[in-house]
Amino acid sequence: MQNSVSASKLTRDIFTLTGSPPFIGLISNLGVFTWLSSAVICIFSFFLLSPTNYQEQKLKNFIGLSGLISFWFMLDDFFLFHELVFPQLLNIQESLVIKAELIWLISHLIFYRNIVLKSTYFMILGMALLMFGVSLGIDFLPIHVDYGRSTSNWYFLLEDGSKLIGIATWCFYLSTVCAQALLNAKSSSDSQADSA
To answer: Among 30, 116, 137, 144, which residue has the fewest nearby CB atoms (within 10 Å)?
Structure first.
């Protein structure tokens, strides 16, 4: 067993360890829960769907990969991959990690553009991407933020609030995609059963 990190630091609640009130990081934690919800809904739907043609298979793949992307972003937010882990432990700049994530997300959406544009409520997805863009734009503004002063509240509300709205909208979008795919699969199997 390793000795560099005590077992209590790995097993106890963070608020107990730090003496912080339980509302610390509330918005960030809600974002993590929402990323996880998106991932679980997509991966669960992926395993429920049994496609009967190429288009249904492509939709199933879109749902599954969207779940994996959501799961990665949940891990990134929870363990601070792009902010701490990659820059400090692996010496990879935060901006490179964010660019790689953006390339992955955009490539995913471009590859499945026919599914996105023809089979989903893509305007909801557009709203999610807009909110992510607002959050990223604010994050990379060339301004100094005093983390201890109350005048920085607007900065954090705009950056983290738009990010949370983006995550919630992303989750809603994927939930509607999964629900529609499952309803279509059920009605297709019901009609096949009736014709048999």
So the answer is: 144
